[in-house]
Amino acid sequence: MISHGPLLERLLAGDFICQINDSDAHRRLSDATVQESFNHYLRPLNRRLVSNDEQSVYFLGYHELNPAARDHLSSQFALTVQSLLPVLEWLQLVQETLGRDTALTAGDILKLQEFILRAEDNQGLRQRIQQLATDRFFNSKSDLLDQQIKLVFSRLKEHGYLVQPHGNRQYYRVTGKLDYLLDVIRFIRDEEQLPVEDQPTQGGLI
Fold it and tell me: Which H or E element spans position 205?
């Protein structure tokens, strides 16, 4: 396990590993033997390696939902819910601004300047972007559209939903953490029957 130590530390810190943010780590975690080794090591910590149905993203879950695990999951769930609606609105804005027929998924490329240019001439989109950027999840203080959009993309990068392959080039790739978030939304809606409704601005996404 020594060779996997840095990867294990990332997972224990709450990272989501996908082919987009770390193709080598994702390849290793896709190996059944490696998965078995990880789970054997993690068992005394009441943790285990899990993935979504498509195996596009790996992260850690719990073996047993003891009180400590429930407390941790509750805090993580609260953070997820805090980002849920703002990210959904951003997804819808991306679809409308760029004229996409489908929701974003891991690996999709977004060009920041293209998004800015297309939004500039649409007053309705400008207003929605401004409202989104001032949400506490993004917390923009700027009145300039380009600065608002840049901050939104920067925050999504900080939270692991996007990666910027080259720091000096303004394009981003969607990571598997977005797939995970959409799975959480579907679970909340379908299994828990909690009030995550298919609003007109969200229905096409979930």
Answer: none
